[in-house]
Amino acid sequence: MKVVEINDVYKTYRDTEVEVRAINGVTLSFEKGDFAVIVGPSGSGKTTLLNLIGGLDQPTGGEIIVAGHHLSELRPSELIDFRMEHVGFVFQSYNLIPVLTAAENVGFIMNLQKWPKEKRKARTDELLESVGLADRHNSRPSQLSGGQQQRVAVARALAPRPEFILADEPTANLDSKSAETLLDIMEKLNQEENMTFIFSTHDARVMKRARRVITLEDGRIISDERTNHNS
Amino acid sequence: MITSLAWKNVWRNKTRSFTVIAAVTVGVFAGVFAMAAINSSIVQRIDAAVNEELSHIQVNNREFRSSSDIQNIIADPGEVVSVLEKTPGVTNFTGRIIVRGIASTAGGSAGVEITGINVDREKQMFTLSERLIPGTGSYFDSDTRLNSAFIGEKLAKELYIIRYILTPEAFRSLEEAGIPAAVTEKLRSIEGERFPTEKKLSEACAGLLTSGEMKKYSLNIREAAWSYREGSKIILSFLDVSGNQTGAAFRICGIYRTNNDFFEATSLFVPEDELRRLTGLEEGQYHRFIARLENDDLTGKATSEIREALPGLEVLNWKEIQTDLAMITDYVNQIYGIFMVLILAALSFGIVNTMLMSVLERTRELGMLSAIGMNRRRIFSMIMLESIFLSVVGGFAGMAVSGIVIGITGHTGINLVKYSEGLEAFGYSAHLYPTIGGDFFIMLTVLIVLTGIISAIYPARKALQMNPVEALRGE
């Protein structure tokens, strides 16, 4: 089942006199349960493509369909609701809310979606258990290591059961051990919850784990390979 | 959840939040306390006007206030009594005989309004008897009540009944008050000398003491030298009902001190029967009836009812007699509001600054919140609530501190004796007992919340301009 469909998408930025074509005619789709990475050199358009898929930015041409929504037809306020309902984000620098505990951060989006308290608590407990932080419910982000914070961020992204998770360079700030742990967890959640993960990365460790590697260069897809990696 | 997040955000940077909260606290306290002090002065003035000078309502012969002719008596006092007895809210009333005349002693003379009163009834209705200066006698309590007069300190001074003498006893009281011996020794050269006025005493002291010593001790010296010979007499002269000059010697039974110099200098009280005998007015004839009400709020209604029932007479309440006092009460209420709005407007700049810093520091976080699905309304509400919390915490702290300080000073009073001459000339007390109504705090709470909301508008709009893409880039 297709989760994301990208049809001949263009994204052009105008910087005074210079026109930069960040995405140049990309056609691509992601299936439910994909564990895919988008790779490519700096400036190849990885982050721009993720932003377009996540509804954070609008294409200048082409069409993106996520869970039946044509993103270019949505108004800005509808896009915010779309992101809340359908997309999970994991950022390079964790971006947890510093004044909330780990459990409150995980429950944050469910709270925005007005989940009942009991259900929210059960889901939070389940996810903190899954990411190995069952004993850090009440820890603030400042009391957690980088790896632990990123695991909380993954739990937060997964909590409301989105269509897919977009992770922009999730291991960039982590040491090897933390990165491996995080990837183990994401792989496990991919299999257990059949959750679709789409990464952008430079990290060879992530590429090694991915079952699909899409390579971008100058805003075009130059390869889209499925691998036999399996955990 | 937004509320709880906003509250937690307020305490992210404790130093910054405490600074702005402290500024709001001090600003609100300063405003509230200043107003309570001003208010107390007005409340005390009204209190004195009603309890010592005017009462709530006066009923006069229509011509009496303009001509004050002794003939202008109330034609049918029985009707007035019957109306006052029936008017709801009237708790007590009495009649007065009022004549204009001259009070004189060997030292001087002064024009006065001589009021003949029913001593027992007036004692129930007024607190003037409590204004008796200790050591000057009593409020018509002696057996020879008939020939007695109760006069103001200011009049006593004008008639040189009060003098200033540094007696051995005065020196003892100065020593007890802790005045250095070096100072009292300098004053020995004027021991026993009589000074007819404060000014003459001060001039004599100024020649002996340094200006610093005068500034520090002149009040103590004046109080110690204050001297009154009990049982002094004055001659009161006025016209009787036939238009003939009449008068008699009256023994001063006591001297009162109020905060109103004019009232003290012109109002003199004698027993009604004595004045009736001297003027030839018959039993039951009065120039004025005065009535007390259960509370001041009934003044307007009771005045209308009595006025309607007594169309031939002039019926006035204290607000109509002392229009300046009624006007100042309304005026001050408006000033309170304007004053508080100005203070809060000044404080709002501090809140805007703090909130703006807080928003700009959180650019990435606010972008991330938008990325993960927190809509514009929620982000706007969160910033708005943070600002409201800052102003409300500071505002409530300010109100609490004000409440405590007003509670304490309202009990102990604030002494402004140094400036009392200026104040008392206008009838205002030199001892302030700050007080403020509960409705003022309700108005203030609304103003404080409004300050928080208005202060948040600009920072909240800034917050909405954050681009969520920035967050994804991890910048």
Brief description of this entry?
The complex is a heterodimer of chains A (231) and B (475). Chain A has 231 residues and is an alpha/beta fold.
Question: How would you sum up this structure, described in words?
Answer:
The complex is a heterodimer of chains A (231) and B (475). With 231 residues, chain A is α/β, with parallel strands linked by helices. Chain A has one domain (35-56, 75-226): Rossmann fold (3-Layer(aba) Sandwich), CATH 3.40.50. Chain A contains seven helices and ten strands. In chain A, helix 3 packs parallel to helix 5 (146-158) and helix 4 (117-130) packs across helix 5 (146-158). The relative contact order of chain A is 0.19. By secondary structure, chain B is of the alpha+beta class. Chain B has three domains: 2-47 and 325-472, no CATH class; 63-160 and 230-311, no CATH class; 162-228. Chain B has 20 helices and 14 strands. Chain B has helices at 2-10, 14-54, 64-67, 77-86, 119-125, 153-158, 168-176, 181-187, 198-206, 211-225, 261-266, 272-279, 299-309, 318-321, 323-361, 363-371, 376-412, 420-425, 438-464, 468-472, and strands at residues 57-61, 90-104, 109-117, 148-152, 162-165, 194-195, 226-228, 233-239, 245-256, 267-271, 288-293, 313-317, 414-415, 431-432. Chain B has a six-stranded mixed β-barrel. In chain B, strand 2 (90-104) and strand 3 (109-117) form a beta hairpin. Chain B is elongated. The mean pLDDT of chain B is 87. The A-B interface holds A 47, 50-51, 54, 56-57, 77, 80-81, 83-85, 89, 91-93, 95, 97-100, 108-109, 111-112, 156-157, 168-169, 172 and B 1, 5, 8-9, 11-12, 364-365, 368-376, 378, 468-469, 471-474.
